[in-house]
From TrEMBL:
Biased composition (Low complexity): 235-249
Protein name: Uncharacterized protein
Highest taxon of the lineage: Bacteria
Ranges for region Disordered: 234-255
Keyword terms, alphabetized: Membrane, Transmembrane, Transmembrane helix
Listed transmembrane segments: 15-35, 206-227
Amino acid sequence: MAGKATATQNKRRQALIWTVIIGITVGACVIGAISGDSDTDVPAPAADERSGTVPILRAAADSQGICYGWQLVDTYDPVSVGSNLGDGTAVADAPGCSRWIEVYANVIYTSSSSESNDSASIRVKGSDDIEFSDLAAIESGLGRFGLDEDAFVDDPGWAVTRAATMLPLLATERGLADPAATPTAEPATPAVPLPDAGSDFWRDRWILLLTTVGLFLLAALFIGVGVRQRRRQLRGPVPAQRAGAGAAGRTREKT
């Protein structure tokens, strides 16, 4: 009876161990999915990037007579817009900007569980008096400065503001305006070097990694306990000695 009770207890313990392991595994998968989806929002340009871009565009617009701006979009949702008239002011809607050029970037981030890759679409738009061929040439010219699709995917905010500052130079190359005067005013906020972005792989999966390590440690602990209990079960209980057996043996020896 004692052996059956011990076997029943071991089965219950093993069932409990597997229940805990399965629960931790499911929880790790859910946490990994949530953490991966949280990185799909496209970040806006930093404050110093926006404040440093506006005066450059303002000086170019005053010198060339063309308004310049940028627009960053997350699929269909606006993320950041700005122009020579200030952060938050779209160049196409700005009063007094009958002639304008704008860099338009649509960046799409996908979750880590998706089979689709992150992507970016960069366009250069302009007022009706600017030829499409000129806008297309300016658009392709951004690639000479490293402002291609990969740059917009890696750091959309920096890329779109950087591209906006290149518009006056590229417009000059196309003969749309004279060279812009060099701005003398310092940016309102000094530019700060960008931190090292690090590895996207570990950034997206550090929670899942920690959970997996904890799962392995917990499983090793449960396995060790189970092996120890199994060894005790195989040894079995030591038979109890009958009362008086020792005394009877000593009596025979004396006789």
